[in-house]
Automatic annotation (TrEMBL), chain A:
One of its GO terms (molecular function) is RNA endonuclease activity. It comes from the Bacteria. PANTHER family: BLL1145 PROTEIN, CLEAVAGE AND POLYADENYLATION SPECIFICITY FACTOR FAMILY MEMBER. SUPFAM superfamilies: Metallo-hydrolase/oxidoreductase. This is Putative mRNA 3-end processing factor.
Automatic annotation (TrEMBL), chain B:
The lineage of its organism: Bacteria, Pseudomonadati, Pseudomonadota, Alphaproteobacteria, Hyphomicrobiales. InterPro entries: ATP-dep_DNA_ligase, ATP_dep_DNA_lig_pp_1105_fam, DNA_ligase_ATP-dep_C, DNA_ligase_ATP-dep_cent, DNA_ligase_ATP-dep_CS, DNA_ligase_N_sf, NA-bd_OB-fold. It is an enzyme of class 6 (ligase). This is DNA ligase (ATP). It comes from the Bacteria. SUPFAM superfamilies: DNA ligase/mRNA capping enzyme, catalytic domain, Nucleic acid-binding proteins. Residues 315-436 form the ATP-dependent DNA ligase family profile domain. Keywords: ATP-binding, Cell cycle, Cell division, DNA damage, DNA recombination, DNA repair, DNA replication, Ligase, Magnesium, Metal-binding, Nucleotide-binding. It catalyses: ATP + (deoxyribonucleotide)n-3'-hydroxyl + 5'-phospho-(deoxyribonucleotide)m = (deoxyribonucleotide)n+m + AMP + diphosphate. GO terms for biological process: cell division; DNA recombination; DNA repair; DNA replication. GO terms for molecular function: ATP binding; DNA binding; DNA ligase (ATP) activity; metal ion binding.
Length: 372, 540
């Protein structure tokens, strides 16, 4: 295993949201457009995902490929059927939980901060702050460095390692919430609203929709941090991932299965019940007394979105960067160029242009995150 | 402001009519005068804030953020007030986020005393102090039109529930009342007598019909019913009392100002229910203009002499509700109709006539009449029970409408645009075209746009089809692959068709909608432009 050639980047750097990247450390890297190779010779968008021709690997491919580097375990990024998968230990565990141990021909653990060389291409994983195990992937060759950030959020999250800005020539970002209307409030305040509603509606079960990987565990952990110590009921689809988070040292308190076998209908009055958003349309939701439908998602910022989903208590809790965080991250990293993979790419590209950074949309398909 | 913002937020998200009614009547109970009255006015669009107009809000936000970023945000959110509320960049400062702007009452009163120059400055100052949800409530307050699934009628029902009175009592009083409605609340709380409707010529809640169903024809005896044409204009109520003359829409909006030519001729004392048309009497015959002629007269702030001359307003009467001081609404339809004919007879025949009754002995006979409509401005037939009193709302079993079958064509999806509001994640507005020339070598020409007629499930399928078959993107619009072999065929239903110089195809449809998705149909088999041209020729 080779160390990243002359990279002075330290893990200690900039682990907090607005902590500036110390530019002086990186000046040696900045040789704009004097690189031996063009950025899109090192990494380029293909229908199946980002592809590195010299390294012969894809990042987060949406179709089975020979060599895949996976940023995190969400289903739109991590798919089964690849020949070889390189990802963090947690992401590999999550893929095994979701798809079975044999989801890939072979797997290899990428430790955060350690450099691997793949056919002359340096590859390094850095924390992305999105969900447990999530990573950005830095790809470097000949003094050129590109960071594919996958999905990320710079704000603190008690269930995963914090995002760190990585110095690079090209920063590849998503733009799920890439519009100035998305300014996510403090997640703790949203949890307080949920607890306020639970207190005010003791006869109703609060059904909180939360994506099964990451969001659900974060909501539970935030409830515990807010002092809520009642048992929390969970849909069967959340159980294995909650168990896994527990095994990784993230305490979630007492969780009980939200099934009728465990009690009568009235038993759920005043309870908090978590389930995947997809379960809310079917029979499962109808078993609860006068359910109050809630949904923890960045989309809940827009009223008509909440209304469309029949959500009575929207909780704006997102595992993605909001507008201010996207723009602050780009400002802090100050790359030569920004590539936007998916989401509201037009607005983010516009912002980059207004602020003197070259930017282009990649129009990548298959990553739209409606369940976020 | 916080209390009003909470009401709006909760109303938006409370599912179902009953939940909203409970919430509103609870609000009326908990909140003192005059705030509850101003809230009621805001929710029923009764608050006219002259010092701020939507265009001024656009200017305010244009001064604060990039126009292109605002446009993209607005495209996504689909609502001006919500977009500004969310995107408003709050400056750092001692007041930021303190949410200590004045109360609803304070805001309404400050704006009432403000000039058009001061109004927007006040708003900007408050926006800097408020949080996003209070910003939304403030902006909705000044622009009106809360898109929150709450009709004025529902607000009146909540008042009725709050006071334990019938909603029609509130509707009858409504036009004589002014915000903040103190006399109304005093009466509803039982501390004062019912306000006397001081306003002359109040609106009288209208009677509406149900669509007739196949089973009704076997169930109902034709001898119990009369029928008349359903004219394709605007249902109105013309009323004159003690020198006050008003023209109301069927929901009670006062549109007198737009039709001075008709209002000047309301030379009677009473209330007539009828259809507003553009029509002219010549040589004893009334010739009626098309719906688009009538549209020339709608939504105009000023009415020019030329407009009045070229598109004269005309009232075709259906019913008589009030004759002088006598309320006729309890009488059977047949008796009211006789009174109506006597009432209309002395009026100016250039402005009024009675909708003719249709003679029929069986439903089949009526069906024959409906298949051979004598004029294009007829939407179908109305069937009314001879003994029916005039009952506000939509009582069962009294009045039925039997609409003409819509026109149908098969057209090919050409462009899709991202929707607004709750459909903003989907491509939901479709432009479709038909063939000019042979499909193999001819071209598709766009003939119309539709954004409804499909289910939510179908929307998802079309949206996926659009994404999978995009050939070009221009902002929120995608151009969809459409040729003789590849393409999605819609069966489009529409109510009418006319020549148009504004459209490349030369035709314009009225009320087009997606009737069916024809996944099974090859695009080459979609209709030709000639078919539409024949329809126009047939209508003339
Ligand atoms: Zn993700």
């Amino acid at each position: 295993m080779t160390r990243w050639e002359d990279c002075p980047l330290a893990m200690a750097l900039a682990t907090n949201k607005h902590k500036p990247v110390v530019k002086a450390l990186f000046q040696s890297h900045r040789r704009p457009y004097l690189h031996a190779m063009r950025p899109d010779e090192l990494l380029c968008p293909r229908p199946e995902g980002l592809y590195c021709p010299p390294g012969g690997f894809h990042i987060d491919p949406v179709r089975p490929v020979e060599r895949a580097l996976i940023t995190h375990g969400h289903a739109d990024h991590a798919r089964a059927g690849h020949g070889h998968v390189l990802a963090t230990a947690e992401t590999l565990d999550i893929m095994a939980i979701r798809y079975g141990e044999d989801h890939a021909g072979s797997t290899q653990v990428a430790a955060l901060g350690e450099t691997l060389i793949i056919d002359g291409v340096a590859v390094r994983f850095h924390p992305a702050g999105h969900v447990l195990g999530s990573a950005q992937i830095a790809v470097g060759r000949g003094g050129l460095r590109i960071v594919a950030s996958g999905d990320y959020k710079p704000r603190p999250d008690p269930t995963c390692a914090s995002f760190e800005p990585v110095d690079c020539d090209v920063f590849i970002t998503e733009a799920t919430f890439g519009l100035p209307v998305f300014r996510h409030p403090d997640a703790g305040d949203e949890i307080s609203r949920l607890l306020g509603s639970v207190g005010a509606n003791p006869d109703r079960a609060h059904l909180v929709g939360a994506y099964s990987l990451g969001k659900a565990q974060r909501v539970i952990r935030l409830l515990r941090d807010a002092g809520y110590d009642q048992p929390i009921y969970i849909h069967g689809a959340l159980k294995r991932l909650c168990d896994y988070y527990e095994s990784q040292g993230i305490a979630l308190g007492e969780l009980r299965p939200a099934t009728v076998e465990t009690g009568g209908k009235g038993d759920f009055a005043g309870a908090v019940v978590l389930g995947p958003p997809s379960a809310f349309g079917d029979k499962w939701a109808r078993r609860f007394p006068d359910p109050l439908i809630s949904f923890a998602s960045g989309w809940m910022m827009v009223r008509q979105r909440a209304r469309q989903r029949g959500v009575e208590l929207p909780l704006v809790i997102s595992d993605h960067a909001d507008w201010d965080e996207l723009t602050a991250t780009i400002t802090a990293i100050a790359p030569e160029e920004v590539w936007v993979t998916h989401g509201r790419e037009e607005a983010l590209v516009r912002w980059c242009e207004m602020n003197g950074t070259r930017a282009r949309p990649l129009h990548m398909v298959g990553y739209e995150d409606e369940a976020e | 402001m916080r209390r009003f913002a909470d009401l709006i937020d909760t109303l938006v998200l409370t599912p179902g009519r009953n939940g909203k009614l409970k919430l509103l009547s609870g609000y009326f109970r908990a909140v003192p005068d005059p705030e509850r009255g101003y809230a009621l006015a805001a929710l029923t669009n009764g608050l006219d804030i002259a010092s701020v107009k939507p265009a001024m809000l656009r200017e305010l936000i244009a001064g604060r953020m990039d126009a292109e970023l605002f446009k993209l945000s607005y495209d996504y959110v689909g609502d001006l007030a919500e977009t500004i509320a969310l995107a408003w960049p709050v400056p750092a400062g001692p007041h930021a986020g303190r949410n200590d702007a004045p109360s609803l009452t304070g805001i309404v009163e400050a704006l009432a005393g403000a000039s058009r120059r001061e109004g927007p400055q006040l708003i900007a100052g408050w926006l800097d102090q408020l949080d996003a949800s209070s910003r939304y409530a403030l902006l909705k307050l000044v622009t009106g039109g809360f898109r929150i699934g709450l009709s004025a009628r529902l607000a009146k029902q909540a008042l009725a529930d709050f006071g334990g009175v019938a909603v029609t009592e509130i509707e009858e009083l409504w036009h004589g009342l002014e915000p903040p409605y103190r006399t109304l609340f005093d009466w509803l709380e039982g501390v004062a007598d019912k306000p006397v409707n001081a306003a002359a010529a109040p609106f009288r809640p209208v009677m509406l019909s149900h669509a007739i169903e196949d089973a009704d024809f076997t169930r109902l005896d034709p001898a119990d019913f009369v029928a008349e044409w359903k004219w394709d204009g605007i249902r109105v109520q013309a009323t004159a009392e003690r020198g006050v003359r008003r023209l109301y829409t069927r929901t009670g909006d006062d549109i007198s100002a737009a039709f001075p030519d008709l209002v000047d001729h309301l030379a009677f004392d009473g209330t007539v229910d009828g259809e507003l048309l553009v029509a002219r009497l010549a040589e004893g015959e009334v010739s009626i203009g098309t719906f688009s002629d009538l549209q020339q007269r709608l939504n105009r702030k000023t009415v020019t002499g030329r407009m009045v001359r070229d598109h004269p307003a005309f009232l075709r009467a259906y019913d008589l509700l009030q004759d002088g001081s006598e309320d006729l609404r309890g009488l059977p339809f047949a008796e009211r109709r006789a009174r109506l004919e006597a009432f209309i007879a002395p009026l100016d025949p250039h402005r009024f006539d009675c909708s003719p009754m249709l003679a029929f002995d069986s439903w089949d006979e009526l069906a024959q009449l409906r298949l051979a409509l004598p004029e294009p401005v007829i939407e179908g037939v109305m069937i009314k029970r001879r003994t029916a009193p005039y009952v506000a709302g939509r009582p069962r079993g009294e009045w039925f409408k039997w609409k003409r079958d819509p026109h149908l064509v098969d057209a090919v999806l050409m462009y899709a645009q991202r929707g607004h509001g709750k459909r903003s994640g989907y491509y939901s507005d479709y432009t479709f075209g038909v063939w000019r020339g042979e499909p193999e070598e001819g071209e598709l020409v766009p003939v119309g746009k539709a954004y409804f007629g499909f289910t939510d499930e179908e929307l998802k399928l079309i949206d996926k089809y659009v994404r999978d078959h995009t050939i070009e993107r221009f902002g929120p619009v995608r151009s969809v692959r459409a040729n003789a072999v590849t393409g999605l065929v819609f069966e489009v239903a529409f109510e009418g068709i006319a020549r148009s110089t504004r459209h490349k195809s030369g035709v314009a449809m009225r009320f087009p909608r997606i009737n069916r998705l024809r996944w099974d149909k090859p695009p080459a088999e979609a209709d030709r432009l000639e078919t539409l041209e024949q329809m126009i020729a047939g209508a003339q």
